């Protein structure tokens, strides 16, 4: 989803996940609910965690330092981000590296396009050209 530049990630998480389609290994329609999401510190909020719990989607989202300090002041269940969660979170660097490669394109980094369709086209073109230059197999 493409939003204006002043919209924060936390507000858009549910809208993005509602548009996710997970392909099945065999025949059948794609699933609309992933098993787990990996997200950075821009996404933790009570509303997002409740939304994920209601849909039985496991989450690997580290807490921000201010939220950890707030949790220490109040009794309750702390969010465990132990060794297993840290191991899962290591896969997040692939996404961050992808963003980094895309932002090497000046127009994408600056978001200077007036229309969202032009920006989406630029991202698609850049992603295609990056993919062509790599030795990765084609997407399934």
UniProtKB/TrEMBL annotation:
InterPro entries: Transposase_11
One Pfam family hit: DDE_Tnp_1
Disordered: region residues: 67-87
Transposase IS4-like domain: residues covered: 2-130
PANTHER family recorded: BLR1914 PROTEIN (PTHR30007:SF1), PHP DOMAIN PROTEIN (PTHR30007)
Name of this protein: IS5 family transposase
Species this chain originates from: Arsenicicoccus piscis
């Amino acid at each position: 989803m493409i939003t204006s530049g002043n919209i924060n990630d936390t507000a858009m998480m549910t809208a993005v996940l509602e548009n996710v389609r997970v392909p099945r290994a065999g025949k059948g329609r794609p699933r609309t609910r992933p098993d787990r999401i990996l997200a950075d510190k821009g996404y933790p909020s009570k509303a997002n965690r409740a939304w994920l719990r209601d849909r039985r989607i496991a989450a690997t989202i580290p807490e921000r330092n201010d939220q950890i300090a707030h949790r220490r002041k109040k009794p309750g269940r702390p969010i465990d981000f132990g060794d297993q969660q840290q191991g899962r979170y290591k896969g997040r660097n692939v996404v961050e590296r992808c963003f980094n490669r895309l932002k090497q394109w000046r127009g994408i980094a600056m978001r200077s396009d007036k229309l969202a369709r032009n920006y989406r086209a630029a991202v698609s073109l850049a992603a295609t050209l990056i993919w062509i230059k790599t030795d990765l197999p084609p997407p399934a």
